[in-house]
Sequence to fold (845 residues):
Amino acid sequence: MTTVLSGGADPLISLTGVSKRFPNGTLALDNVSMTVPKGQLLSLIGLSGSGKSTLMRHLNGLHKPTAGTVKVFGVEVSSASSKQLRDVRRNVGFVFQQFGLVGRATCLENVLSGALGRLRGPRYGVWSYPRTLRREAFDHLERVGLAPQAYQRADTLSGGQMQRVAIARTIMQQPQLLLADEPVASLDPESSAQVLELLLKVATEDKMTVIVTLHQVELALGWAHRIVGLRDGRVVLDQDARGLSQTDVMEVYRRVDRESELLATPSTPAAAPITERQRA
Amino acid sequence: MTAAHVEPLARAAGNKLPRAPRKWQSKALLAVFVAYVVGVVWSWMYIDMTLLTLFGGFTELWNLVVDMVPPNFDNMRVVLKATVETIWMALIGTTACVVLSIPLAFMAARNTTPNPVVFAVARAIITLTRALPTLVLAAVLTLPLGIGPLPGLLALAIHSIGMVGKLFTEAVENTEAMSREAVTSTGAGKWQTVLATLVPQVTPSFIGTALYRLDINLRESAVLGFVGAGGVGFVVQQHLRSLDYQRAIAAVGVIFVVITLIEVVSTRLRASIIGDHLSSPTKKTPRTMARERRDHRLLVDAVTTRRLTPPWTYERLVRASAGIIYLVLIVVAFATIDIPYLSALGLGDEVIDSFGRLFPPDFTTAGPELWQGIRETVAIGFIATTLGLVISVPLGILSARNIVVNRFVYGTTRLFMLALRGLPELIVAVLFVAAMGLGPVPGTLALTVGTATFMAKLIGDALEEVSPEPREAVFATGASRAQEFVTSVIPQALPNLVSQTLYMLDVNLRSSTVLGIIGGGGIGFLLLSALRVLQEPTVGAIVIVIFVIVYSIELIGTFVRWLVE
Ligand SMILES: Nc1ncnc2c1ncn2[C@@H]1O[C@H](COP(=O)(O)OP(=O)(O)OP(=O)(O)O)[C@@H](O)[C@H]1O
Ligand SMILES: [Mg+2]
Fold:
């Protein structure tokens, strides 16, 4: 499973000059470069449409860049063979805002599908997975507190429970990198706090590297090592979280807002990215 | 003039108002309407059916009814055996069609197709298989395969691909993509992902479609015997030929009962599969409550003891037993149906050979008759649709509970319609031919009856569903019942009525291509006579003509539906 990993010194992820223009002409990423070392907890922030999801999707090859290179575990995802891509994906857990569960299947089956990358051949139904994997899936459901729902259909669960099943599916995958795209955006405040806490607890226990997009800045600040801000597909903030207070980040959000107003006025020259200004 | 004032208003409302159809579209609709009227007038003159022949037909029918009582059941052993064969043919034919349609659907669905060439080929197969009526296909297949159920069930299997493949494809295209993306992201392979995410989503609708097609194929299977392709239709025809009407009606009665029974079972099965849970929460009888308690206990036991296989809940038991019953039935069907499997294996070359002899098609030998057959086929379709529609309006009104206050009238009308709809159209047609002799009139009347009962059911249901508020508003003004009906009920139901009429025209034109096979007029008659004398190139020509007729109807139908929407 670790064959695709290169030596420990290299960063887990490195993006160089990545741009993405969709067929309809939208420039969703504009010359993005960044590296992420192993074990880091990184939070992506930015207004809606700033390119956060697009960036995440480049990291496991769901999107291909129009320019630049995306390297994950030392593999160049943008030009990887489908075999290599599967190897990368197996090591990248992806938690989606809309959970991505199969509603008509039981929770146990949904969790088991996280093991497909490790198995050969198609599987259908619980019985088609080896018993050891079934036991493992049960353990993971227990870990997210949903073992009692193992044989319940996924579409009978609440939103928070569904996301916990999705998390169990991701643990089943045993990934080294966890990407979570607004994992709690469709949940009520109480379950979002619970689910996020669970996600991060599991990720740190299993020593995963994490990239998460969040709309709740205070949550992001609470646990992230590093905050990266995107605007119109460009990196406008890349900072250690420790130096930032909550008001700082709120200030950052507001500045990003004001910047957009400034940019809208043609006569004003484009404001420099915040990081550069702060370094200066 | 007013349009100029209305348009800016519509724009101000954010284009929320329905867009008026563009000019050429409304012109095209008008042209379709005019073409329909012209078609009807021309058809009426062509068939030369006067109201007198119509009423004459009713006396002849009455005479037949008198000849048929009392039904004679002493040939039941033969009838039942042939009926069982009919059921097996439908079961095997539908199964074969489903097996072929599953890969086709994944190839023809936009979200799963491997490449554009495969996509185009799969779509073409699905469209083309629909264009040859089952009975025509079966008749042609008897050339190489001989008399028996084999050509019949092959025809059922091939023709059904058109509908089943299309519905399967739609089911695949209607799946949600999120779970697929999520499982792909775990590093699962393409087929692993399809099986884990798509298949659970499409299975219920696949099964529903298959059961629905089984109903249709059972009706089709009952008439395949008319061309020697197996099943109970042959027995009916034999009795009619020897003027043994009392035995014939007994066989027809058996067909009716079997079709109705299987339809009831499959409708219930479909409802329980498509409905998300087997027990509806509204009806909690002690039995369902006990069932739920047992299920709950099983689920709790399973998770506390960490069972690694799903527990046998009621829902799962029902599914598993339905599956086992189906498997047993299909095995019995294959084992007992009269197909010489070993020699059938060698018939592949024979089939190719005999299809080769259909080419080059010979359009000249039957030239003038061919042309006459085409015109008669079209004429039958138009008259049956129009006449059926005219009759269906009073029939439909009589069968609407909220309009006819008299329960007896309402009840008997519904019952009468149910009985007529329970029989395959061609069985009705063959009885009419027996009563009135060969020719387009009995065929037309049979299709008329089919159309009238079908449309009357729709009209009755639509009238019962029409929202009551506008009616009450008009009532409050003191309008009479008739006025009230005209001003409020009709406009509400009209658009649906128009599209259903077009649909019936489509169905009737298709049916009238095969009516001739049982002597009911139209091009099918030529097909049968060419087959009898083994004029294969002429058979080829007729098959091509039928194909073109049905395919053009399909294209025109698609265009008109597009216009209406
Ligand atoms: N498949 C696609 N085709 C075309 N345009 C796309 C596609 N996916 C995203 N976009 C566009 O790319 C831009 C970035 O979208 P993205 O979903 O990455 O933003 P986001 O930061 O995740 O926003 P949100 O917070 O709303 O999720 C948007 O303008 C979006 O409309
Ligand atoms: Mg997003």
User: Anything to note?
Assistant: The first strand of chain A starts at residue 13 and ends at 21. The longest helix of chain A spans residues 246-264. Residues 23 and 55 of chain A are 16 Å apart (CA to CA). The pocket of magnesium ion (ligand 2) is lined by residues A 52-53, 181-182 (CB under 6 Å).
